[in-house]
Design brief:
This protein is α/β, with parallel strands linked by helices. The chain has 2 helices and 8 strands; from the N terminus they run βαββββαβββ. It has a 4-stranded mixed sheet, with helices on one face. Strands 5-8-7-6 form a 4-stranded mixed sheet, with helices on one face. It is globular. Pfam families: Glyoxalase (PF00903). This is VOC family protein. InterPro entries: Glyas_Bleomycin-R_OHBP_Dase, Glyas_Fos-R_dOase_dom, VOC_core.
Length: about 120
């Protein structure tokens, strides 16, 4: 087994969160009712954990994810209307080509790649 880490993301609406992450390329690999495991088959893994009442407000959710991918533009096309920063994806001062969206529970999700 590879040495890797998986985010466990609390969400107050599992179906909405699942639908959101499917748009980014994830698929459900295991469903345990209030706990769903998602992956894309190429290295992304994510666990969704039903957490009623979380977050207290969307704006107060401190969680974030960074998804590295080669074809940033292809993923951006799947969620174009959800992109937070106008004109994204673009190259950032920290040398990534990226864009950001927010999941239904307010998790900030950045999708990008490192620019040489």
């Amino acid at each position: 087994m590879n040495h890797h880490v998986v985010a466990i993301v609390p969400c107050n609406d599992l179906d909405a969160s699942e639908a959101f992450y499917k748009r980014l390329g994830f698929k459900v690999s295991s469903d345990y009712g209030e706990y769903r495991i998602m992956e894309d088959g190429r290295g992304w893994h994510l666990h969704l954990n039903y957490s009623p009442g979380w977050p207290p407000t969307i704006e107060s959710n401190p969680f974030g994810l960074y998804l590295y991918v080669d074809d940033v533009d292809a993923i951006a096309e799947q969620v174009r209307e959800l992109i937070i920063e106008e004109g994204s994806p673009n190259i950032k001062p920290w040398k990534t080509y990226e864009f950001a969206v927010s999941d239904p529970s307010g998790v900030l999700v950045r999708i990008g790649r490192i620019v040489d």
